[in-house]
Amino acid sequence: MTSSTHEGAQGPHHASGAALVALEAIGIVKRFPGVLANDDVNFDIRVGEVHTLLGENGAGKSTLASMLCGLYQPDAGRILRNGVPIQLSSPRAGLQHGIAMVHQHFRLVDRFSVAENVVLGSRDLSFKLNRAELNDAVAAVADTYGLPVDPTATVGDLSVGQRQRVEIVKALYQGAEILLLDEPTAVLVPAEVEKLFENVHAMTKTGKSVVFISHKLGEVARISDRVTVLRNGRVTGHVSSKGQADAKELARLMVGRDIDLAAQRASHPIGHEVLQIRDVSLVASGVNVLSNISFNVHEGEMVGIAGVAGNGQRELADVIAGLLSPTSGTISIGGAMSTDRGPIASRELGLAYVPEDRLGVGLVPSMSILDNLLLTRDRSVVVDRANVRPEANRLIDEFEIKANGPEHLARKLSGGNAQKVLLARELSGGRTATKLLVVCSPTRGLDVGAIETVRRLLDDARSAGQAILLISEDLDEIMSLADRVLVIYRGAIVHETPGATALLEQVGAAMAGLSQAGGA
Amino acid sequence: MRAPFRLQFEQRTETPRRLGVLVPLISVLAALFAGALFLLATGHSVGDTYSNMLSDGFFSSTGITDTLGLSTVLICTGIAAAFAFQMNLYNIGGEGQLYVGMIGATWFGLFFGENLPSFIMIPLVLIGGALCGAAWIAIPAWVRARLGTSEIVTTLLLTYVAASLVNHFIYRSGSYFRAPNSMFPQGRQVPDSAMLSPIGDTKMYPTFFVIVLLSLALHWVVRRTEFGYRIQVISDSPRAACYAGISARRTTVQVMLISGGLAGLGGATLIVGSFQRLDPGIVTLGYGYAGIVIAALARNNMAAVVVSGILFAGLRSGGDKLQISTDTPIHIGVMLQGAILLFALGGEAFRRYKIRIVRTPAVGSEVTA
Predict the structure, then answer these.
(1) How many separate domains does chain B show?
(2) For B334-344, what is each residue's pLDDT tens digit?
(3) Domain that holds residue B175
(4) Which of B227, B229, B239 lies at the smallest CB-CB distance from A361?
(5) What does the alpha-carbon distance between residue A257 and residue A234 come to, in Å, rounded to a whole number?
(6) What average pLDDT does the segment A365-385 reach?
(7) In chain B, is it the N or the C terminus that has fewer CB atoms within a 10 Å radius of its CB?
């Protein structure tokens, strides 16, 4: 059952008597220099529910959450805890009211044990720590909510998912009744997301409330009891979903228009081979990072490489782009050998490469859009910027990049616009016309509108006859774009299937290393 | 009790252009103010001291020409430091490269000077000094590029070696650089063809204009050329440089050699100018170290180094003359230089942050439950 209301038509929940309102924010306004981050926002969270704050990057979700936990103070508006107005002057004041936030970037001391991290900041510790007692206390809290953590483990040795669990245990240990989770799934792999959702359910069962902050529609639709959608600092809709919210409707509220993320495949016949990889292996520090990889990519074809992060994807892309030399095997682009010839030679053969890290690898943050366009091109001894400026202006128009012009600095671009600059440069060709495009996680961290644009650009490039290698951890993206899907596991291709008929279960199993083909 | 106000630092998204000029200016004024406090505390007249210093440094005809003459070497060491800073390389050893530049320039002057005309000798001596300065930084450059060894440590330590080298060439009897028939250890004067005459009745040499042009040229190189572009990419994101096929190693070596060469050139300007011989007194003057301060004050802008170099030269030459004209200690000038650096670096905070005074909430509204 889905119902949605718009623009402040929110009923007084605390009067309905259905469930107790644990925390309520009324008419919240927050300004930052030049930005109205929250404009008359109303939000409430009931006892034992998951209420999601959904919105694109910059919509004001994190700002609102930061005010609810005491990190920022609102410029106007009231915050009520169990119906009583409260002033949250600091995160410590928030904690005293049972409100805690788990930040996207963890705030843990790597060299401390889990238990030490959990009790860090508690004011009632004795001078000499009784470690055994602390360990037991932390383990007890963790067990109550089904959060398996070893209190004696060193945080530096833990995986990202485990560290997040430590943050949650820490909040619970400090007595949090209301947990604000800021983009908690952004750093997690699919299996860890499942585990997190189980933990969230375990917490809400015991009467804790969870504010889930996200821009990922699929997850939001699954986990939320209610959803509040923010756009440009204003509430654009409330959806009560009980785990069944409609992703399309949410996307419309979030972006303000209909979004099309439907599957797209090659519409033209596939042409000649552009990229040939033969038996490529890479050994780094005694570890087989890539083993005997062979595949081709053809003109007008998009090949997707699926896999869990850290299975050799980054190295594979770097080897193809000429940034790494393979230990053995050969790579050819457009029929010419490019192995061991370096990135510039590879580009001269028609390679374009969109790396995983946009700012810092693909783009130089302190440089302008114009200078960044020059990064992978042939530059004369005296850099002729005047000559490139018209092209920069054209690309800004063509790729709908929101910028003040070619002099706009890359680091001041939003993630989506930075990605568009990168794609604009790589797709428009530099030293020679682009024949082969290698793209890594092209939509990671982007909001829905930008994801739609990036996918369209990739599809257009494919229609224009470019060969595309799409390397992504986002399985949905690969399944809906790639003409052929390859799965990489521990540096080897363990599964291959046509994109149109690929089965999610099979690909997922191969990613987890369970395929018959690559058992060894 | 809590203070009723607190300072709030807000990061600026955009630094207003005028702050680029205002902050260094106010830094200098603040340093002069701090210096005034010291003068008062030590019982000197602030007004007299500063007016003497300013007139001896800048506002008298001999004062300004003396200043410009001294600024030549300081601008050289300033651009040496600033050029390396462009790529986040810290060449702290400009001092040592300057000594070696002097040794090299003197050698070229002594060796070729008798036979060659002045219009060949002057460029030869200057280039020879620059080459020797570059050679002195070659090892730090190479180990930095290959092994990542901190250039701060290597360049600094080599300065002590260079100072010993200067002394060795002067105090060793029979040294090529030592004046043959003098009782006291002193350097041999280079031939006339390797010496410039000062401009008119001043202590200024034509090298000043050469060095100013060189600073502007290097400014252009950094801003407009492919080499400058490479430097900017590497300094900002080494991984982006690798992605684009730009060799950080090669550029590191190139930039450091140029930086060392510029410091060496500074040493050579002294030889063709006022020194005329290898003089062990150089090791007490600290021209190379001053270059670091000058570069920092100019915020590593190659063209602005000219301005900060002249400013420093003025304070220094004005400060030196104080001791002669009044009983004010010479170190007031040195102290002011230090104060200027301190305030200029502190002033950076104003460029990066907007600082506001915020009233802290009244105690009653604090949550204490």
Answers:
(1) 1
(2) 787 788 778 87
(3) 69-300
(4) B239
(5) 16
(6) 91
(7) N
